[in-house]
Amino acid sequence: MERTHIEADKTIAKRANLQSYENTKELFTWDHALQELSQAPSGKWNAAYECIDRHVAEGYGDKKALLFTDGDHDETFTFAEVKHITDGYAHVLKESGVKVGDRVFIFLPKSPACYFTILAAIKAGAIAGPLFEAFMEDAVRERMQDCEAQYLITDENLVKRVPFDDVPSLLKTWDIEEFDREAQQYEDADSPIVWLDEQDGMLIHYTSGSTGKPKGVLHAQKVLPHHLITGKYVLDVHDDDVYWCTSHPGWVTGSVYGVFAPWLNRATVVIHGGRFDAKEWYSLIERFGVTIWYSAPTAFRMLMSEGDLYKDFNLTSLRHLLSVGEPLNPEVIYWAKDVFNARIHDTWWMTETGGHLIVNFPSALIKPGSMGRAFPGVTVGILDENNEPLPANEVGKLAVKAPWPGLMKEIWKNKEKFDSYFTDNGWYLSGDTARIDEDGYVFFEGRDDDLIKTAGEQVGPFEVESKLIEHPAVAEAGVIGKPDELRGHIIKAFITLRHGYSDYDGLTEEIRQFVKTKLAAHAAPREIEIVEELPKTKISGKILRRLLKQQEIEKMQKEVASEWQKKNA
Ligand code: PRX
């Protein structure tokens, strides 16, 4: 039987913080923030205070704030301990001259120190610039140069990738061990908190679009209600939850939903140091009793390709999972329901949007293939080429009525780029294409130019990829439109095979027939190429369809050239 939706589990839905989507008009209200953010009434606040110090002041100092493991050893920190450490760190920064608005970069592996230094920079009033630990020299240079970073906290390994001569703005660099030692002298000092205005900067993340240099997306303190309220209703944090976000804070999911949103809601946060390892991940969930788990489709697909491994672990603590960053294939949602007995809640947002905008709530029905519905109070639309709204079910540009609390404050020193996101009639353009059904569920189609027209028919690559990975032999798939004289484009699929499968005569034809019979004849790839791995973005692991397409076109051009040479030799 074809499965078309997944209802919310009754017990979970009843306990969820948001129980009715339909009756909830607006959640991002100032009143709402006032109830939750202790310092909001004063008009001055500090995100780091609201994440940590407030809970200590309210009597939760002994609650576990952080559980860390790198596979070999574990560490635990209470909220009081995190307050103490981040206070000391903030004092070091202030004593060294850090002022409101200065850029303090943090280049550390995923570890407690990475989280603590981010918070300390914010306590001191600075803008924290977390860098992804896998960045190499060029990536570090471009980012630190662009916003003229003045301070850097790193470690003895990563420091080797910092091109000091090219970042003349840099005033001081600390090795984390030395930084930690300097903090000892502030044992009994007063609170270092610098109270800030809502427009003061707090975090800078660089997004590397498909073209051009990375852009510095600046989040201001005003994002706080967005983080707090989506943390409460979408992550659905309760006091007994153990929450794990697998992303490094150098990526926006790892900062907003790794650090801020969970800690604003007093969650016990898990950090796993090190790379993906299926066994270690499953064992972490079992050992720490993870209840809420935020990761990405690629990670879920990798676990899926491990087959029965999950059976060796007790994963019953999981209440729900969340996903972001790339399309979540329905197949993955059904797999999770079967093996974890928990739903995956897809979320859509961008570095620039500062927080969730399209979501699934624990209390509401999921339509697999859809990213969910607009967060209450957010207006999402599908626009035509004149930026006018289209009716239900028509595919067009995915846009959001601006502003909302999390929306970036600026693109660092690039007003032109910032302005290019907004239309004259008040919409923010995401660059994605999508459609919205009659119930308000949003279905992702692709980035602006990912859609495939083949023989006059529109095909979303995501749909084809989802179908491909339902075939038992296929682990991952990237689908592009390959230029074709007769059809405009034909569909070409690049696939990797699951463990235990190797190429055999007739396999690609079998897969083609599978899509043809399951999805649609016009959507079945005419060409399927088996590859060792698919090109992906370094940070979020999104499959780079554009690169696949570019490589394919170059290959075609070479073939044409060599034909021509043969004929004219
Ligand atoms: O194309 C959309 C895709 O990721 C883009 C934003 O990327 P980034 O700024 O790196 O932020 C990722 C995490 C916040 C979007 O324009 N994207 C994000 N969420 C989804 C998604 N694509 C499909 N489904 C999603 N849930």
TrEMBL record:
Source superkingdom: Bacteria
UniProt KW keywords: Acetylation, ATP-binding, Ligase, Nucleotide-binding
The keyword Acetylation is annotated on this UniProt entry: yes
Class in the EC hierarchy, top level: ligase
All residue ranges annotated as the AMP-binding enzyme C-terminal domain in the record: 463-538
Cellular component, GO, one term: cytosol
Biological process terms in GO annotation: acetyl-CoA biosynthetic process
AMP-dependent synthetase/ligase domain boundaries: 55-412
Alphabetized GO MF terms: acetate-CoA ligase activity; ATP binding
InterPro entries, alphabetized: AMP-bd_C, AMP-bd_C_sf, AMP-binding_CS, AMP-dep_synth/lig_dom, ANL_N_sf
EC number(s) reported in the record: 6.2.1.1
Record flagged with keyword ATP-binding: yes
PROSITE patterns: AMP_BINDING
Record-linked NCBIfam families: PRK04319.1
Name the UniProt record assigns to this protein: acetate--CoA ligase
Organism: Paenalkalicoccus suaedae
